[in-house]
Amino acid sequence: QNYTINIHMCIHGVGFKKSTPWKPRDIWKFARKEMGTPDMHIDTRLNKTVWAKGIRNVSYHIHVRWSRKHNEDEESSNKLYTVVTYIPVTTFKHLQIVNMKSWGCHDN
């Protein structure tokens, strides 16, 4: 599943230099709720993209792909895990945008 996440709506009301650390957590929570798997793996390119502009300049949208995979680790209690990867796009026009504010992004 591909999603364009509107992070700007989620970090509204968060302090100036505290908004960027919320982004990976909110993406993780949103993907966990949508995919229904408690075990999450976030790609390093996604984390680098989130922090690319630093803590002060937050990007407003991000395009991600979630895929559910079988867990090969026998010791794990979960059969499935979700991989969250970054999809680079040139423009966000004509992409389905998911409003993260509707499900409650973070706890203030």
Main sheet: strands, sense, barrel: 5 strands, mixed
Class derived from helix and strand content: alpha/beta
User: Briefly, what CATH class?
Assistant: Alpha Beta
Sheet with most strands: strand arrangement? 2-4-3-1-5
| SSE string, helices as H and strands as E | EHHEHEEE
Protein topology:
Layout: E1 2-6, H1 7-10, H2 22-35, E2 40-42, H3 44-50, E3 61-70, E4 80-86, E5 97-99
Parallel strand pairs: 1-5, 2-4
Antiparallel strand pairs: 1-3, 3-4
Describe the structure.
By secondary structure, this protein is α/β, with parallel strands linked by helices. It has one domain: Ribosomal protein L31 (Ribosomal Protein L31e, Chain: W). Helix content is 23%, strand content 26%. It has three helices and five strands; from the N terminus they run E-H-H-E-H-E-E-E. The chain has helices at 7-10, 22-35, 44-50; strands at 2-6, 40-42, 61-70, 80-86, 97-99. It has a five-stranded mixed beta sheet.
Summarize the structure.
With 108 residues, the protein is of the alpha/beta class. It is 23% helix and 26% strand.
State the main characteristics.
108 residues; alpha/beta; Ribosomal Protein L31e, Chain: W; five-stranded mixed beta sheet; 3 helices
